[in-house]
Amino acid sequence: MELFDHQYYPYSSQRRVVFAKNGMVATSQSLAAQAGLAILREGGNAIDAAVATAACLTVVEPTSNGIGGDAFALIWNKDQLYGLNASGPAPKAISAELLRKEGYQEIPNFGWIPVTVPGAPAAWIELSRKFGCLPFPKVLSPAIEYAKRGFPVSSLVSSLWKKAYQIYSNCGKDEEVFQYWLKTFAPGNHTPEPGEMWRLPEQAETLQKIADSEAESFYRGEIAEKIDAFSQKYNGYLRKEDLAFFVPTWVNPVSIGYRGYQVWEMPPNSQGLVTQMALNILKEFNFTTREEPDTFHRQIEAIKLAFIDGRNYITDPSEMSVKIEDLLSTRYAFQRKKLITDKAIDPYPIKPFGSDTVYLATADSQGNMVSYIQSNYTGFGSGIVIPGTGISLQNRGANFSLDPSQANYLKPGKKTYHTIIPGFLTKDNKAIGPFGVMGGLMQPQGHVQVVMNMIDFQLNPQAALDAPRWQWVEGKKVKVEQNFPKHIAEALERKGHNIEIALDSSEFGRGQIILRGRNGVLLGATEPRADGVVAAW
Question: Which of 209, 243, 316, 383 is most buried, judging by how many CB atoms fall within 10 Å of its CB?
Answer without folding.
Answer: 383
